[in-house]
Design goal:
- By secondary structure, the chain is an alpha/beta fold.
- The protein has a domain of about 60 residues.
- The protein is built from 2 helices and 3 strands.
- Strands 1-2-3 form a 3-stranded parallel β-sheet.
- β2, α2 and β3 form a beta-alpha-beta unit.
- It is globular.
- About 10% of the residues are buried.
- This is STAS domain-containing protein.
- InterPro entries: STAS_dom_sf (IPR036513).
- It comes from Actinacidiphila paucisporea.
């Protein structure tokens, strides 16, 4: 049996550099959405990808944070935020 592809045997392809961007603008802040995002994050992690949520509503952001999954996603800055800056 051949070994499963991993970072060390992907013939020069760098795993982990791909980002899956999700337009979350229309997603409701529900447990069903949270479950779908968690499954998406798990599948992305297994393939070495990152997930960026774009346009998430404040309610969805809060739900993801309350579930302890906030650090599992990359977040597109909100319109009033400047990238890399702390908003007070």
């Amino acid at each position: 049996m051949a070994p499963a592809p991993g970072p060390e045997n992907t013939a020069g392809h760098s795993r982990g550099s791909a980002v899956v961007s999700v337009d979350a603008a229309g997603l409701p802040a529900t447990t069903a959405t949270l479950g779908a995002l968690a499954r998406l994050r798990l599948a992305a992690r297994r393939t070495g990808c990152r997930v960026r949520l774009c346009g998430a509503s404040p309610g969805l952001r809060m739900l993801v944070q309350l579930a302890g999954l906030g650090g599992e996603f990359e977040w597109e800055p909100e319109e009033r935020e400047e990238p890399g800056r702390v908003v007070e």
